[in-house]
Every structure is written in structure tokens, then in C-alpha cells.
Amino acid sequence: MPAERLRIVLLWHMHQPVYREPLGGEYLVPWTYLHGLKDYSDMAAHLENQPGAAAVVNFSPALLEQLDDYRDQLEDFLAGRGSLRDPLLAALGETALPVDAEARRALTRACLMLQRQRMVEPFPAFRLLVEMADWVLAKPGAESYVDAQHLADLLVWYHLAWLGETVRRGEPWAMELMDKGRGFTPEDRRKLLTVIHDVLKGLVPRYRALARDSGVELSMNPYAHPILPLLIDFGAAREVHAELPLPASDHYPHGKARARWHLEEGKQVFQRSFGMLPAGCWPSEGAVSAGAVALLGESGLRWAASGQGVLHHSLGAEATSSDQLHRAYRLEGSEVVLFFRDDELSDLIGFQYKDWHADDAVADLVNRLAVIAQTEAEPGRVVTIALDGENAWEHYPNNGYYLLSALYRALYQDARFELTSFSRCLDDPAVTVRRLPQLTAGSWVYGDLTTWMGQPDKNRAWDMLVEAGNACHDALGSGRFDATAVARIERQLAVCEGSDWFWWPGDYNPEAVVAQFEHLYRLQLTGLYNLIGEAPPDYLAAPFSHGKAEARGGAMRPAH
After folding, report:
1. Structurally, what CATH architecture does the domain formed by 456-541 represent?
2. Are 86 and 33 in contact (CB under 8 A)?
């Protein structure tokens, strides 16, 4: 009898928090559309280019709504019907660039927000523009010695650098602009704006087609990416660390109801985008607890995935053997099947292989998987490789083009392996589901919840949310809002409940990024108070967290 093929699930998680100003709708940072251009488009292309390959692509519903909004803005602008509500994108579309010195400096700074080694250095024309921009910003008044053409070319090259590698290779106008290299005209900028529109407009239909016609499964996380275990019970943070400091508030008001709201609203947005309901869920940050899994089951979801550290804490022993880690599990009384991430393999892609030659990296991963396949174990194993689907690739040459192309090809063609999805595993009679006696609350980061609670600034952020949540609940209970206003308030509350506002506070994160995100959080809370007709607390006018200039934290962290 031939040996069983080792099942491998690649899960890519796509998420950006809501960056829109809550009342006017202006986007305060451009990361949603930039990652759409680069990472969501490239991942779709890799899956399209390897027919038969399988993966799970997880989308945040709030991200899907923002992508739709950018598509609509661009469509209207290009048709002469409206303006663009993202300052960076709007600058690309304007015939005349700003003449005010501070506005020019702000636009110049915005065009330097990228990974220089991989996104600037490969392009000599862009590198020269960036060197000039650094000089301008370092010398007060120097912008008067640099003409508008420098700013125009910097703006164009910034967006060319953020195009996915498959877009740069396959889109004629993008190739034309890169060949031109300098002296870009307003007509050139409009061409680039059209390319951006076409890429963003095509994203959701492309993934919908992949889910319909290939082995790709689409899944979701709760609507605005909240940490479900903490919404439900602050005490979940102490299941791993019994002495962890908690917020002054002892719970989040109506947390279970809010968690249900995120799940149900997330499903509705997902269905509108893809024409179907999701079968499974990568809970925000892989954060799970017994209470959270119960709500996933109530919501009709069949599977969820989390981190290896959670399994380790739940079993009370190191979950390092393949026979333990690479299994499907189910809690007593639950219908939701749980899969757990192989931290070592996932972190190799997320953090280590970026400096390797792509062929060597893929060969190393294949060899590691072959060792797992040869390890004696009961049949039915599933190896879960799960990671951020967007932030890793800017650290790879060519946005990970060679790594991902070779990875899909190697795993699909190797007879020892079966690239699959979680839903297909559930339908595979050979995949037996083991009983999990208990589930210790945790996430894919360190197997606990300390990334979002326990540090003073994080706890302060939660106390601010608790106060806003109580005010919101009281206002909604007053009966003075119509259905439209209630829906808008609930959505804004959901935005404030997102995980990112608690990820960044703390002095182990970079100063500039902490400043950006804590400002965004205070702005979202202020917008919520405005929507319910109450004056925002005075403390929302002042920063509550400060990073450190030398800190090395970021949007991605190894599991250990």
C-alpha cells in the first residue's frame, strides 16, 4: 500500500484596520490600497499561474469594504464624477502638485514610507529621487531648490515600487512608465491611476473565481479584527499568565454580544463580496478561547485555526511531535474543528527565507516537510503553514515572486505532498479529529494574549474603549437614533474594537508607528463620541503611548 501523502495547508491572512476618518471618510494612511496593489494582486496571480494548487486565503471583512471604497472612488474620479479621499492617491491624480512648502515636505515624507532595500535599491532612477528627498527633508528650506518635477517623479516611482511584481511584468502601461523612468507628465500619472484602479477593481472577482474554479478556499476573521477572547472576558489573558496586570475595568461591556456582531456582520460582508458564506475562520491573530470557539460554532463556522503555542498550553506539554501538532482537534461539545499552525515552518517563510535564494529556501522547506512525511505517525496528519499574507513580501526580492512561484510549483508537483484546504480536510475520511480536553486562551503570538493586554499602555487603551462602549450602549438604549444612525454607530464601535489599536501601544514598538496608530485610535474613539452626540473625553486630545526610536517591533512577530 503506498504511503499516505502529507497534507499541507498554506493559509495567507490579509488584513488592514480601518484607516478612514470616521466622519469625513478621508483615509489617513494609504496601506489598504498599497497592499492591494502589491500583495493581494501578486498572491492571486501566483494561485492563477499554478492550476491545481490549493491554499486558504483569509480576508478581513473591514478590509474588503475598504477595497470596495477605493475602487468606487477611483471609478468616479476617472469618470470625472468625484474626488479622491486619500491624500497620496489624490496627489497622483492632481494636474498641479502643491506649491506650499510644508505640503510639499509632507508629500515627500509620504513617498518615503517603504522598505528601501527591496523597493528602492533595485530601481536606480527611484534611488536617486529618494536620495534627493532625504536631502530636502534634512535641510529646512531646501525644497525651494527642487522643482515640481522631482516631486512628480517621486510620486510616480513610489507607486510603481508598490505595484505587485506580476503587475509590473504584465501591465503594459506600468512597463511603459518604468521604461520612461523620469519626466513624468500629468498624463503619465493618470495612466498610473488607471492601472491602480484596474488592479483594485479586479481583486475580489479574481479571488471569487479562484474559490469557484480551483483548490483555493476563502475564509474570514470577525468583521473589524477584534480579539474575541478579550471582548468576551478579560480574564482570558490570565489563562497563561495568572499574574498578568489587567485593565482597571473588569470586563468589556456586552462583550459577548459584540463578538457575535463581528461574526455576523463579517459573514454578511464576506457573502456580498464572494457570493458565498465562509466555512471557516482564522480568528483575529489566531486568538481563541473556549468561549470564542463556542461563538464560532453558533455562527455556523466549521473550522478555525490558531497557533502552536495555544496547543502546547492546552495539552500541558510541548506540542512538538508531528503526531500531536499536525492534527485536527475538537473541543468536547463543539462542532468546530481546530487546526494549529506549525510555528517553525511558518516563521521560516515569514522571517528567515527573505535572505535566501528562492530555490534554496524552497528546497529547505521541502526537505523539512519530507522529514515530517517520513516520521512514523498515525494517518491523517495536516501540516498548517499560516502567516501574514502581505507584510512579509516587502522584505523579499521582487515581492517574493521567485519564492512563491517555486513554492507552489514544488509542493504541487511533489508526489509526497498534497496541497489542500481545511474544508477539504474536513471532508476527507482519512483525517480523524482528535478530542481536545481543554482549550487555553491564546493566540499565534507566544501562545498567549500579552500582545494586546497586560502592559500599562495597552490596558489604558482598553479602559478608554470600555468607557466609550458604555457611553455607546447608553446612547443606543435611549431610542433617539433611527435605524441608519444605529447601524453607523455600531459599525464605528466595531472599528474601535479592532486588534491593531492594542497591538501597537508600548515602548517596544517604533516611535513613529506607535504615534501613528495611537493617534488613529484616539481619532476613531472621538468619532464614535461625535456620532452618539456626546463630547469626547479630554484625554482623547493627548497621546497615551510613546514608542522608542530604536525599538524593533513591527507588524509581524515570530511566534516565539
Report:
1. Up-down Bundle (1.20)
2. yes
C-alpha cell at 316: 500541558
Measured distance CA(341)–CA(451) in Å, rounded? 18
Q: Which of 18, 59, 184 is nearest to 111 (CA)?
A: 184
Q: How many CB atoms lie within 10 A of CB 126?
A: 25
Task: Evaluate the CA torsion angle 200, 206, 211, 217 in order and state its sign.
Answer: negative
Cα gap 58→538, rounded to integer Å: 38
The H or E element spanning position 331 is strand 328-331
Q: How confident is the prediction along the chain (560 residues), in pLDDT tens digits per residue?
A: 357 999 999 999 999 999 999 989 999 999 999 999 999 999 999 999 998 899 999 999 999 999 999 999 999 999 999 999 999 999 999 999 998 999 999 999 999 999 999 999 999 999 999 999 999 999 998 888 889 999 999 999 999 999 999 999 999 999 999 999 999 999 999 999 999 999 999 999 999 999 999 999 999 999 999 999 999 999 999 999 999 999 999 999 999 999 999 999 999 999 999 999 999 999 999 999 999 999 999 999 999 999 999 999 999 876 679 999 999 999 999 999 999 999 999 999 999 999 999 999 999 999 999 999 999 999 999 999 999 999 999 999 999 999 999 999 999 999 999 999 999 999 999 999 999 999 999 999 999 999 999 999 999 999 999 999 999 999 999 999 999 999 999 999 999 999 999 999 998 899 999 999 999 999 999 999 999 999 999 999 999 999 886 655 555 556 55
Sequence-ordered strand ranges (E) for 250-297: 280-281
Cα–Cα distance list, 544 to 436, 451, 458 (Å): 41, 17, 10
pTM: 0.96
Enumerate the domain spans of the chain. Answer: 67-204, 456-541
Cα separation, 491 vs 52, whole angstroms: 38
Q: Exposed (0-12), middle (13-18) or buried (19+): which is 188, by Cβ within 10 Å?
A: middle
